Amino acid sequence: SFVRGHLEAAGFVAALAVLALVSFGLSFGTAAVSDVLIGAGFGGLVWVGVRLLSPLAGLLAGFVFFFVVYRAVPRHRPSRRAAAQGALVSAVLWEVAKLAFGYFTRALALFAAYGPLAFAAGLLTWIYVTAVIILFGAEVMKTRGTA
After folding, report:
1. Alpha helices of 25-79 — where are they, by DSSP H?
2. Residues 38-51: what's their mean pLDDT?
3. Per-residue confidence at 4, pLDDT binned at 50, 70, 90?
4. Who contacts 138 (Cβ-Cβ below 8 Å, separation ≥6)?
5. Considering only CA atoms, which of 58, 59, 38, 56 is closest in space to residue 47?
6. Which of 29, 33, 59, 114 is deepest in the core (most CB within 10 A)?
7. Residue 66: which of 142, 141, 143, 144 has the closest Cα?
8. Are the C-beta atoms of residues 25 and 57 closer than 8 Å to each other?
9. What is the pTM of this model?
């Protein structure tokens, strides 16, 4: 029915939002955890381990995010292999984009000069970059699925 379809779509969008937030949290939130562990006396090895594992955990969450999108959204369901290939490419690109975006927002310090306007411009830029990554991964999936 109409209502059921819209409820399923809303649930799907909410689940994808949660996966995206988990990916961001795993990529960037672990810095706080590593600082707490060092403050508790666990040493630099823990810091190195957390700093190396956090992007990998974010990559895994991003892979799950893109795999779900590439398997569930298209009208004609692609093979798992093609969806996994597109998801892997997208997850790697998204992780690189997250790291680059974080670096540029800290290094350029535009937020101090422009305040909320810089936040709006940054958010729109991030949405655009994410859309390009999603479309590129979909192209990879389509190409690999028909090759």
Report:
1. 30-39, 44-72
2. 73
3. confident
4. 70, 86
5. 38
6. 59
7. 141
8. no
9. 0.77
Do the Cβ atoms of 12 and 22 come closer than 8 Å? no
Amino acid code (one letter) for 64: V
- Of 71, 65, 59, 57, nearest in space to 17 by CA: 65
d(CA 7, CA 117): 34
- pLDDT tens digits for range 66-112: 998 898 888 888 999 999 999 999 999 998 998 888 777 777 766 67
Asked if residues 142 and 87 have their Cβ atoms less than 8 Å apart, the reply is no
As a whole number of angstroms, the distance between CA 52 and CA 70 comes to 27
User: Token pair of 56, please?
Assistant: 């990998």
Q: Quick one: tokens of 121?
A: 């411009």
DSSP-derived 3-state class of residue 122: helix
Question: What are the boundaries of each domain within the chain?
Answer: 2-146
Amino acid in position 98: K
Number of residues assigned to the chain? 147
